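Sequence in, structure out. Go.
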Amino acid sequence: MPLLSIITATTQDRVQWATNAMETIQHQRRQRPHYQTEHLLVCDGHSPVLQGRCKDNDCRYVRLRNGPHHDYGATAHQWGLEHVQGKWGCFWDDDNVYYPHALEAIMDALRFDADIHVLQTRHYGDGQRCRVIPPASWRPPEFVHAEVDTMCLVVRREFALQESWIDDQRGQCGSDFRWLQRLAKHNPQVRFWPIEIGAHT
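Output:
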């Protein structure tokens, strides 16, 4: 059984992005073959090209059919958590850049007990200047809106499954922040590692 499951959400229209993510992840896994990891690509819609590339990159391919909220990101993350085998899960989406030490940093963090581990990323989105989130001054477990990113999170799967990524309100997309707010009701032990593992562009 793997220790860490890496979940990548994508769509049938994002072949190059998903391919880049797969190749990056597989390269890091090959560099560290002693790590117990698995990779799951959850694709909204069917892509024969991605299905074939998953075979080349030791990645399990799953076709996702939209749930009632039509939000592939939240649905893919939730489906991934429910079907992977690892004790821990992380979310390496296809639109992120992962630094060469990212996997190593996560595996080092997992030597310490917690329900949620949080690392850092550089964030270039929302028309703002580059920010590092969470900032080095952040102190868990209080999550702050716009100061957390999906790729920063590593969650103990048994704990994470207590709450769904998918929001209850019909038509409202699930988000990492709202999911974390729901998980906060269960008083998680959160560890923060001020180590940048990548960039969200």
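Check: The domain at 4-200 is CATH 3.90.550.10 (Spore Coat Polysaccharide Biosynthesis Protein SpsA; Chain A). The chain has a mean pLDDT of 89.
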